[in-house]
């Protein structure tokens, strides 16, 4: 008896016993349309698995190759800022914004906010008046939660007391 024949018999016996234990699967394997469907299912499943493994490997390689640059980025940023300062560039845009935010006092900021809210309220009233003229209405009222300037300043005073 040849080695290949013994392997063929062992595998054949295994499948024969397995199909005997599962007659429905035996019927599916002998039916041509069911066999075609099972083959397509196996092919597409294997294809999806291979694609998923490929995407996973791609993500791993991208992570491994970009991590050193991400770790060294703060060092390069500090070096770039020091070079810019050395050659006459006093501060970057973000440095100027940070300094403006720290220099602006909270009371100044509150007055800016109140002035802006007042301007927006006036603009809203103008737009409502124009809308009333266009639609022929005598007056259009919109439910707004508008507060006066003094109410905003009182709210700020309460906020300072809480802190």
Give a structural overview.
- By secondary structure, this protein is mainly alpha-helical.
- It is 84% helix and 0% strand.
- The chain has six helices and no strands.
- It has helices at residues 3-21, 23-30, 32-86, 93-103, 106-135, 149-162.
- Helix 5 packs antiparallel against helix 6 (149-162).
- The longest helix has 55 residues, at 32-86.
Short description:
The protein is an all-alpha fold. It contains 6 helices and no strands. The chain is elongated, with a radius of gyration of 38 Å.
Mean pLDDT: 80
Radius of gyration: 38 Å
Oligomer: single chain
Shape: elongated
- Number of distinct beta strands: 0
Task: Please identify the structural class as seen in this structure.
Answer: mainly alpha
Q: End-to-end span in angstroms?
A: 94 Å
Largest sheet data: none
Poorly predicted segments:
none
Q: Give the count of helical stretches.
A: 6
What percent of residues adopt helix (DSSP H or I)?
Answer: over 70%
Helix and strand succession?
A: HHHHHH
- Strand percentage, roughly? under 5%
Note the main attributes of this structure.
163 residues, mainly alpha, elongated
List the helices and strands and how they pair.
Layout: H1 3-21, H2 23-30, H3 32-86, H4 93-103, H5 106-135, H6 149-162
């Amino acid at each position: 008896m040849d080695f290949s024949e013994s392997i063929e018999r062992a595998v054949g016996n295994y499948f024969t016993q397995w199909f005997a234990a599962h007659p429905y699967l035996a019927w599916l394997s002998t039916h041509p349309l069911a066999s075609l469907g099972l083959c397509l299912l196996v092919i597409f499943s294997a294809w999806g698995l291979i694609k998923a493994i490929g995407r996973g490997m791609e993500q791993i390689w991208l992570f491994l190759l970009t991590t050193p640059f991400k770790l060294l980025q703060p060092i390069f940023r500090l070096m770039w800022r020091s070079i810019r300062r050395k050659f006459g560039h006093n501060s970057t845009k973000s440095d100027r914004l940070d300094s403006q935010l720290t220099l602006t006092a909270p009371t100044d900021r509150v007055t800016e906010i109140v002035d802006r809210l007042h301007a927006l309220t006036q603009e809203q009233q103008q737009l409502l008046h124009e809308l009333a003229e266009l639609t022929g209405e005598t007056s259009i009222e919109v439910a707004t939660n508008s507060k006066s300037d003094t109410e905003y300043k009182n709210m700020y005073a309460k906020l300072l007391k809480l802190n």
